[in-house]
Every structure is written in C-alpha cells, then in structure tokens.
Design a protein that fits this description.
heterodimer; A: alpha+beta; Beta-Lactamase; 6 domains; five-stranded antiparallel sheet; elongated; B: alpha/beta; Rossmann fold; five-stranded parallel sheet; about 40% helix; about 20% strand; globular
C-alpha cells in the first residue's frame, strides 16, 4: 500500500510538477511577451536574459550574458539610486522602481522594474530575478507633457533679464535661462548637473555647498551670496543667489527654482561704504580715545567748562593742582575756586568769548587750593560751538605756574634788593653800558664819584670818563672785556668838573642766554686815597729797602769794626804780653822775686784781656751768623783727652779729684771738633774755677738714645741758686758779683757755650744744689748733617 | 851763616819785640816799616824768611806777599803773615795771597822761635796750623 501510495504520490507530484512547469512555461511565454526578464548571480552578473530583454536592449543574448546591468545603465540615476536598490534586495526584500536604461544604440527606454531575490538554505543570496515592463511610451508621454510645461516656463524664463535656473529635486541643475548662459558663457549642456560650478568662485564653493545641504535637509529655500565668473571680462562678480523648492500636490519636491542677481557693483559700493564707515568709526573711536587719554593724563590741567562756569569734565592734573577729587570739582564752578581778586578779569574774558568778540583768551590767575593755599596758574580758554554754531562749552588748559611765580617773585625781590643796593651805594659808581659802550644806567655812587647826573650822562659814550690822552683806550677795554668776560684795570679818570681821580674799574661783559653781548656792567671806585697810600707804601718800601741795605751795611761795618777792634786791641796786647813774657822768662836778664811776681800779674791781666777779646769776637761772629761749623768725624775720647790736657795744670794746682769717663761703645761723632773742645774747655774751666781746692770734678760722655750723646760735667763746687738759672747763659752775667775777684772770668763763657751747642742742634741743662755742686749736661746729636749737603 | 829774616811791621813796638825775640835766637834781622821799603830790601838782598804784618800803610802786607810769590826770582822766599788779624778767615786770606804761614798776634813768646824755625825749614802750612 505504501508503495502504491508512494507511486501515486510520485505520480501526483510529477503531475503537479508538470502542471507547474506548464504553468511556468505559459507564464514564461506570457512574460516573454510582455516583460523583460533577467536573472543575475549574487554578484549581479547576468545569467539569463529573455528575448524581450534582448529585443528591448537591442543586445544579442550573448552580449548580455556574463555582463552586469551597467551595460544598460543610462547614467540617469544617481549612485544612491542603485545603492538603495542593492541594499533592498540584499536584505531579501523585493525592490520596485522605474529605471531609465540605455539601449545598445544609445536610445533610452524606461522600465518599471521588480527585482526578486532568491536565497539558499544558508541565507545567502543565490540569484536575483529582474522582471521589467517597458514603460518608455508612458514615460515619453509624461516627459512630453512635462516638456510642454518646461518649454512654457523656459520661454518665460528666457525672456526675463534675470538669471534663472532650475534643478532636479536632488540638486542637479537641469536648466539655465539664456541670461544665465550668456553671463557665464557656458552651454546648457555644460551647466547640467554640477557642471555649472565651473564658474563659481572656488572660495565660495564651501558656503554654497553648505547652503544646498541645509536646503536639502530642511526642504526650505535659501539665499546666499557668491561669485560667478562673468564671461565678458573674466572677472568674478558677486551675485545674490536665491532658490526655493517647487512641490507637487503631495508636497514632494519636484524641482528647485533659483535666480541669481549680479550685486557686484552694489556690493562693492556698500563694501566701500562699510569700509568707510568702519574707518570713520575707528578714526572717531581712536581720536576719542586719544583725546580721552591725552585729556586724562596730560601734564597740565585740562577741563571742559560750561558757559555758566560749571566744570563739565576735569582731568587728573587739574584735580591734583587744586586738591579736589573729580567728583568734588564736577559739583562746582570755576568761580568757586577762583581767587576773588582774579574773578572779575576771568569773567570779563569769558563774556567776550560768549559775545563772540574773541575765540580764546589767556591769563594768569589764582585758584584757591582745597587746603586754602594759593595756586598760580596760566589759563588758556577757548570756546567750542556745536554743529549749529551755538556755543556749547569752554575748553580750558590750566598750567601750574606757582613755582615760576615764586621764582619770579624771588627774582623780583632780589632785583629790587640789588637795585636798592646799587642805588644806595655811594662809594662805587655802578652803571651799565649798552653793547656799544653808551651809558645805560647810573646810580647815586656814579653821580657822586663822577659828578654827572643820570639825565646828563645816559646815552653818552663812556670814553667821556677818560682823560683826553687815554680816551682812545675806551674801545679797547670794551673789546677786552667782551673777549675775556671781565677785566679789572686801574688808571686816571676824569670827573665832570675836569678833576682827576685814580679809579679801580671792573668791567664785565653781559650776555643773554643765547650768548649775545647785550652790554657791560661797570663798577668804578675812586681809589685815589688808596693810590696815595699805595704810593706811600711804595715809598716806604723803598725806604725800608734802603734801611735794610743800610742795616746790612751797618752789619758789615760792625763786623769790620769787630775785626778791626780785635786787630787794634791785639796789636798793643802783642807788645804787652810779648815783652812781659819775654821778661818773665828772664831771657833778657834775671829778675828779683818781686819783679817776677808783678810781671806775672801784668801777664795774667793781659791774658784775661785777650780771652775777653777772643770770646767777644766769637759771640759777635755767632750772632752775626758768621760762624759755620766745620764738621768732621772724630773721636770724642781723643778730643776730651786734649782738653783735659789743657786744663790739667789747673786741676793739678787745685789738687782736684778728677776723672774723665767715656761710656760710649762708639765714641765717633760728626761735629765741629774745635767748637766741642771750646764747650768742654769752658765747662771744665768753670767747674775748676768754682770748685774749692781738693774738690771733685767728673767729665762723662754717655749715650742718650740712639742718636744723641751727653757730655756731663759734675763738680762739687759752690752751686748755683735756681733763681739764677735763667740768666746763667746771658752775656756778662757772672753770678754773685761779690765773688768776681775770687772767680775771674769773662762772663761770656756760658753764653758762648750755649750758642755753640745750639749751633750743633743740641741743648744744655743745668742742675745744682747750692753748696754741694753743679751738673752741666750738654746733649748733642751724634752727627749733624751739613745743611748744604 | 845765620839765616836772615826780614820783619815788616808799621808798629815799632811789635817790630822791636819780634826782632828782640829772634835776635836772641841768633837770627840776622832786617826791619822795614812799610811794604815798599821792604820790597826794596828784598830785591836788594833777598832774605830767607819774611815776617809780614798785614795791615801796613799804602801797600798792605798781602799785596807784598803776592808780589814776592809771583816774582820768579823771589818766590823761593818764605813769607809768614804775622798779624793781629787772628780770625780763621784772616788766616785763609793770608794763604790765598801766597803766604807760607800765619802767626796770630799776640804771639806766644814761648812757641814763637820754634814756629819760625819750622817755617824756615820749609814746613808745610797744614802741619803748622794750631
């Protein structure tokens, strides 16, 4: 049963299949009659094309198989159209649409197309079956109808002086009117789709694209400015483009209609205008800013003042000047802070401005500072009109001149003081000469000194003051003063009455700030008295000179006298001493004891006289500065021994205890040995003289520091009273006159000793105790440097 | 033969003193009171030594000394100033005039003959300085 059933089933299936195939065949025949059928593989390659396809596309079947449908692509549809188609069928859905195709001969045909996708069991597309109905005729009718409308439209459009275009809903241009084509120089063909963009300025492409995109998105019209190249001169000119969509009854966009208007000239003018406006605005802004800055930060005070005197605007410098804040001032008038004494003048000037008799004024006036002090200012005010010529306000510039006024006041004061001083000066003629030497001013002193009154002398050339023989030197003095700036001279001048006076003249060139000579100041002093004194002084000097010469001569004479006196005294002494000692030596013959004694007295007296003469001569020479030391390096020890040798008879006669000690490691000194001998002799002989027989005497030489030595003579004699120390070293002052007979001396020894020590640059000191003894200490340098060397 | 010494001095006392002292020593003494007569004596019979006072009437002693010392025939004569011009400067002037020595008045009677003897024997100036 099952088998029968199977056969039956199969039979039945075959029947069905056969019926189906028949049906398909019939259907296919019907399809072939009416429809274009094509089957493609998943990649779109045509695997089947029916007769109708071949007939309609005018391709042989072999030409179609193995190709894809691009072979009949008309290029009419945008890519998106086919992308949409493919997306639909790949997703397994059936696609419907009208496609414009192109036949092998280039003619177009429209087909209403249905594409059915077939899938494998695994879900992948196996093949696509496209069934198309040729609707070209219908389309042609449609298009003919549309064209009819278009033509009407185009006819109209071409007649317009406006550039008109139309575009398809997707934006592709499909029409430009004659005006448009004429302007751009393109053919209609060249403008089609996006071809028109070749005349669009590249710089405007972006904005244009942006507007179109927005228009598509919103379906609304747009307005945009862009540049098109004008064919006639190749220049890009600005256009205003407008476009709006045309919709069908269902509201679908069927067309874009646009118009372009050349706005270049307009735009240029307006751009120019705009530029001008901008420039003007900027300029105004800048000048306003500059004005504001200049106003605000000006070093001088600035203000705008209302015609009633109210401060309208004030700057910082003005506020600082008067000590008010900006707010303070703006609530006040200039009258409020003007010094009462200056107010009327200021108001008067202001009234003149307002009356139109002046357009600015300047005055120096005072403000009252907030702290009450006076502020001197220089005001420069001018009046401002509005566009209609009406006065609106004043512009004031306020310069602080307080310091200048102070300086001026000080100058004035000093000038007045100077004038007062010059006027009151009686002893000096003080006057001015102009640059040519004519008297320009005259003071009381000048009148008094020179005898002219001001009105008599002003304007006269100043040589009138010179004595006739000197009047030629007037010009030269001016030239000298001009060249050197100032000259001082003395000479004789003449008064009005012809009398002469000795003048001290100070002539000073006066120059202005530019250095140009403007005149001279002349200060003349009558120094006749001084001149007299001076002359006397000269005489006196001459007299003194003569006196000095006389003194010198007298000194010379004194020296000569001393020398002569010495000579004249010695000459008789030679006889006295010579013969006395000759006799005393008993060479001419023997003498008795008394004769011998008396002859000894003669000898002693004459020897004393000789010493006196020698000492006097030495003193006189030293005082006359005639003694020059003959210094040499010598041994102090040797010199001391020599002197001790000389006095030793005396020491021996009195039986004195004597010792000489040299306590120097180096006893070499550079002094005058003869004079040192003289010093030692004088001191030792004094000591011997004033020490009683059997007394004690010491002579010491010892160092004092590195550079000095001491020569010390110590005796145990009668001593010296301290009160007598002062006159010890004075000439002819032998102490204790009562002792003169006992102690004979010239009275010159210590005076001479001190002078010799001083000549060596040394000192002499004395210590003494009356009745016990005396110590003389001579301090000498080890060496004296010759003043000539 | 005794050396001859000419003493020139315008002061008779001093002339006499010097003469007496030197005669006592055994010298032959000639005397002149002024330079002119002294020069005549010298020229007539040149002495070995002239003791010459400086201050003399008419021609002074130093002029005479110069004449002697600039005369080829006389310059060998020893000339010693014997003068009361006792200062160092006076001594120097004497030497400058050509004197061979200088003895200051008043003379030291004890040393005088000795000094004269030395000058006669041609002692140098320096060694004889006191």
């Amino acid at each position: 049963m099952t088998a029968i059933r199977d056969v039956t089933e199969r039979k039945r299936t075959d029947e069905t299949l056969r019926a189906s195939l028949r049906e398909v065949t019939e259907l296919r025949t019907a399809l072939d009659e009416h429809a274009i059928v094509a089957i493609t593989d998943p990649e779109g390659m045509i695997t089947f094309a029916n007769d109708k396809f071949c007939a309609t596309s005018k391709y042989a079947r072999q030409e179609l198989l193995g190709q894809d449908h691009r072979i009949v692509n008309s290029g009419y549809h945008p890519k998106e159209f086919f992308a949409n188609l493919w997306t639909t069928i790949k997703e397994g859905r059936v696609w419907h649409g009208e496609i414009k195709n192109r036949a092998k001969d280039g003619s177009f045909y429209w087909s209403a197309t249905t594409i059915v996708p077939f899938f494998n069991k695994d879900g992948k597309p196996r093949q696509y079956v496209a069934i198309r109905a040729d609707i070209s005729e219908q389309k042609r009718n449609e298009e003919a109808f549309k064209l009819a409308r278009e033509v009407d439209f185009q006819f109209l459009a071409d007649a317009l002086p406006q550039m008109i275009w139309t575009a398809k809903p997707d934006g592709r241009l499909d029409y430009c009117n004659q005006r448009w084509l004429g302007y751009t120089g393109l053919t209609l063909e060249q403008t089609k789709d996006w071809g028109w963009q070749s005349v669009l300025h590249p710089g405007d492409l972006a904005i244009y694209g942006e507007r179109w995109t927005r228009a598509f998105a919103t379906g609304s019209g747009y307005e945009v400015e862009y540049r098109f190249k004008r064919a006639s001169d190749g220049t890009y000119r600005w256009h205003l483009g407008r476009a709006f969509p045309q919709r069908d009854t269902a509201g679908q966009i069927i067309k874009w209609i646009g118009a372009c208007t050349d706005i270049h000239d307009q735009k240029q003018v307006s751009a120019l205008l705009e530029q001008r406006v901008q420039e003007r605005t900027l300029a105004l802004h800048t000048s306003e800013e500059q004005f504001r800055m200049a106003f605000e930060f000006a070093g001088t005070g600035m203000a705008l003042v209302g015609l009633d005197g109210r401060w309208l605007r004030v700057n910082r410098a003005l506020c600082d000047l008067v000590g008010y804040t900006e707010q303070d001032l703006l609530g006040r008038t200039f009258q409020d802070i003007t010094h009462p004494d200056d107010l009327e003048t200021d108001l008067h000037h202001m009234r003149e401005l307002i009356a139109g008799t002046a357009n600015h004024y300047q005055m120096e006036k005072r403000y009252i500072h907030r702290d009450g002090s006076i502020v001197w200012i220089r005001l420069t005010a001018s009046i401002v009109r509005d566009a209609l010529g009406n006065f609106t306000h004043l512009v004031s510039q306020i310069e602080d001149i307080t310091d200048r006024r102070k300086v001026e006041a000080a100058l004035r004061e000093s000038e007045e003081r100077y004038r007062a001083m010059v006027e009151t000066v009686q002893d000096y003629a003080i006057f001015l000469l102009d640059a040519d030497g004519r008297v320009a001013s005259w003071n009381a002193g000048a009148a008094r000194t020179q005898g002219y009154l001001a009105e008599e002398i002003i304007g006269r050339y100043y040589s009138v003051f010179f004595p006739p023989e000197l009047s030629n030197s007037a010009a030269g003095m001016l030239a000298a003063a001009s060249e050197r700036g100032q000259i001082e001279t003395e000479g004789w001048r003449v008064r009005k009455d012809g009398s002469r006076f000795w003048a001290n003249v100070l002539l000073t060139a006066l120059r202005n700030e530019q250095g140009a000579l403007v005149g001279f100041s002349k200060v003349t002093r009558d120094v006749t008295t001084r001149k007299g004194l001076q002359d006397q002084l000269v005489e006196r000097n001459a007299a003194l000179e003569i006196e000095a010469q006389r003194a010198q001569e007298a000194n010379r004479l004194k020296s000569e006298f001393l020398a002569n006196m010495s000579h004249e005294l010695r000459t008789p002494l030679n006889g006295i001493i010579g013969f006395s000692s000759f006799l005393a030596g008993e060479k001419p013959g023997p003498l008795n004891a008394r004769q011998k004694e008396f002859l000894g007295d003669v000898l002693a007296s004459s020897q004393h006289l000789l010493r006196l003469i020698n000492d006097l001569l030495d003193l006189a020479k030293i005082e006359a500065g005639k003694v020059e030391l003959a210094t040499e390096l010598f041994s102090l020890r040797t010199v001391m021994a020599e002197v001790v040798g000389v006095v030793s008879p005396l020491l021996h006669d009195k039986q004195l205890d004597f010792e000489a000690l040299v306590q120097l490691e180096d006893d070499g000194v550079n002094l005058d040995p003869q004079r040192i001998k003289q010093v030692l002799y004088n001191l030792l002989s004094n000591a011997i003289k004033f020490t009683r027989a059997g007394g004690r005497i010491r002579l010491l030489a010892r160092p004092r520091g590195d550079r000095e030595i001491e020569l010390v003579v110590i005796d145990s004699g009668i001593g010296i009273k301290p009160a007598d120390f002062a006159r010890l070293f004075t000439e002819f002052q032998q102490l204790d006159s009562g002792s003169s007979r006992l102690y004979q001396g010239t009275g010159l020894g210590l005076a001479l000793t001190k002078k010799i020590v001083s000549l060596h640059g040394g000192t002499i000191e004395v210590e003494s105790v009356v009745g016990h003894g005396t110590t003389f200490t001579v301090v000498l340098p080890r060496a004296i440097v010759s003043p000539v060397a | 033969m005794k050396p001859r010494i000419l003493i020139v001095d315008d002061n008779p006392t001093n002339l006499k003193l010097a003469a007496a002292l030197l005669e006592f020593e055994g010298y032959a003494i000639e005397e002149a009171g002024d330079a002119e007569s002294a020069l005549n004596l010298i020229r007539a019979r040149p002495p070995q030594l002239v003791l010459l006072d400086v201050q003399l009437p008419v021609m002074d002693g130093l002029t005479l000394a110069r004449i002697i010392k600039t005369d080829e025939t006389l310059r060998h004569i020893r000339v010693v100033a014997l003068t009361a011009f006792a200062m160092k400067s006076d001594e120097q002037r004497a030497f400058d005039a050509g004197c061979d020595g200088h003895i200051a008045k008043p003379i030291d009677v004890g040393k005088f003959p000795e000094l004269v003897a030395k000058y006669l024997n041609g002692a140098s100036q320096a060694s004889l300085r006191p």
